[in-house]
Structure to design on (66 residues):
């Protein structure tokens, strides 16, 4: 069976600059954010997926990976 993964683009601000990435929700439980320089995943919590993706993207930017 073929599975199609749909990545959603995301942009957020980090210390006055725009940072870009993509995110996907896998198995309705894990959100993964990816940039050209890194990625970070986390279990979905009570936050909306878009807000959680922004948070993960800012965390990647904080360590120079976005």
């Amino acid at each position: 069976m073929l599975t199609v993964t749909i990545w959603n683009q995301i942009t957020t601000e980090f210390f006055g600059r725009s940072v870009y990435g993509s995110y996907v929700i896998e198995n309705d439980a894990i959100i993964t954010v990816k940039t050209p320089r890194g990625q970070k995943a986390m279990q979905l919590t009570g936050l909306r997926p878009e807000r959680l993706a922004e948070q993960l993207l800012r965390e990647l930017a904080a360590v120079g990976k976005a």
Observations:
- The beta strands are 8-14, 17-26, 30-35, 38-43.
- The chain has a mean pLDDT of 94.
- The helical segments are 49-62.
